[in-house]
Design a protein that fits this description.
three-stranded antiparallel β-sheet, binds FE2/S2 (inorganic) cluster
Length: 119
Amino acid sequence: MTSNAIIVCPSSDLVDGGLACKLPVQHKSGTTTAFFVRYQGQVRGYLNRCPHMGSELDWENQVFTRAGDQLMCARHGATFEPATGECTGGPCQPSRLTALTVTEAEHDGIPVVLWWPQD
Ligand code: FES
């Protein structure tokens, strides 16, 4: 069931509006990271590249605003809808984050976050 998936972290590591888990990613533009968060109970994953200037969004794995209802780029403050990655404010409208396919499943008896890389 998990043969094509990459285990990101235990599900319990991601709490609503909390810190992100990150993994290194090879992208067409070079090496970067992906980040994974939980929002309204659902896990979400995005390529960690801001559409504005390509910077990583997080600051030490913090990607949520203080209110926990938006993702925010630490560089110039662009904000994004956590459920879709759509830019909701700042210098990169209109644009969106690159969404990744993520699920949760049990692995060796432990609930884990899985990332299903496409390309
Ligand atoms: S690089 Fe993210 S808002 Fe400028």
